[in-house]
Write a structure and sequence with these properties.
5 strands, single chain, five-stranded parallel β-sheet, alpha/beta
Length: about 120
């Protein structure tokens, strides 16, 4: 039987100095809560957000939860986090520099989601 789960792919290019990184995780968590399979593809400065320890003390908007809490909730809910390999490499990051569960994979993984019917958003 074909998987009828709705899929959402969110491309995140904003880093720790931009509130839109928090917004991306808030929307991703809402997607999971609504029954969607959500994948974040971190590119450019977005890769900094999921580096070990980087989001531990980030709380950009007092009306939103801290960024680490949003990331933890996303992963606990089954969300996937993918990181662009060249974006990581240019910053000197190896896969071991990222929080547990993060995969460093190229854009074909994102395109596979799109071909499989994923809606897309970008921040």
């Amino acid at each position: 039987m074909e998987d009828q789960t709705k899929k959402l792919a969110i491309v995140v290019s904003r880093g720790l100095d931009d509130e839109r990184a928090t917004v991306a995780f808030t929307i991703a968590n809402t997607g999971i809560a609504s029954g969607q399979q959500v994948t974040l593809f971190m590119v450019s400065a977005g890769v900094d957000v999921v580096r070990k320890g980087a989001a531990d003390n980030v709380h950009m908007n007092p009306f939103d939860p801290p960024l680490k809490e949003l990331i933890d909730k996303f992963q606990a809910g089954g969300g996937r986090i993918l990181v662009c390999p060249p974006c990581a490499k240019v910053r000197g990051y190896a896969e071991s520099d990222f929080i547990d569960g993060v995969q460093v994979v190229g854009s074909p993984a994102l395109h596979a989601l799109i071909l499989d019917g994923a809606a897309t958003l970008s921040f």
